[in-house]
């Protein structure tokens, strides 16, 4: 019976649909009338060649109106058929029936794409609310930078502290950078007011600051050079230890991928990197 129940329902908002379409037709008719008027006016100016009326300002205004009309037309697609959706997460199947998913994170240059920000994205993906044995995260480093490779290893060390923490206290914000900047006191979770949580949060925050400092040291001591001529490197990031101390917390699979690049072979930028993945 559970398999026959849908996970979401969608309903067309008929009242909004009628109002939106009336507005679209009215507004569209007004724009067509304006364009017709502007076009006739400009043709008359060219035909009469009235030197007292400047042609260029009118042409620029007409061109601007055409651009704004086109932008308005593009924005009406979502208004043409408004739909309300309702989801039923309680109908999701058990963890054993969920499919495996792969998450691809693409980066190429640790200078243009700061390593701390990329690692926060990586940690957020690893902390998704999904069975750990069915979640696989791949970091595609198209530049083959040693900085990114070392940063991934540092992120793995911090994950062994971060994942048990947010699972234990049901933390909703999975990105550590966003979490430590936000105030979670309004979430209504009684666990957040306990002295144990406050002490552990402070400890995790210290670990996060140490993690950022280690990445900054990696950037200082390692070349950020990226090359279009390098060998492939695929590394499963795993030190054989799950969780923190005696807490055997399962962590999703994390793989670092840097594809081979040669100057005589087209690499097709990020599209080529995704094809490799």
Main attributes?
single chain; 277 residues; alpha/beta; four-stranded mixed β-sheet; two-stranded antiparallel sheet; 8 helices; 6 strands; transmembrane; transmembrane helix; Cellulose synthase G2
Account of the protein in words:
This protein is α/β, with parallel strands linked by helices and 277 residues long. It has helices at 14-48, 55-75, 77-80, 115-126, 146-169, 176-181, 195-221, 269-276; strands at residues 8-12, 83-87, 101-107, 135-141, 233-236, 253-258. The longest helix has 35 residues, at 14-48. The protein is extended. The chain starts with 7 loop residues before the first strand and ends with a helix.
Overall shape: it is extended
Number of helices: 8
Beta strands, count:
6
Q: Which radius of gyration do the C-alpha atoms yield?
A: 28 Å
**Widest sheet: strand order?**
3-4-6-5
**Structural class by sheet pairing and helices:** alpha/beta
CA-CA gap between termini: 38 Å
- SSE pattern: EHHHEEHEHHHEEH
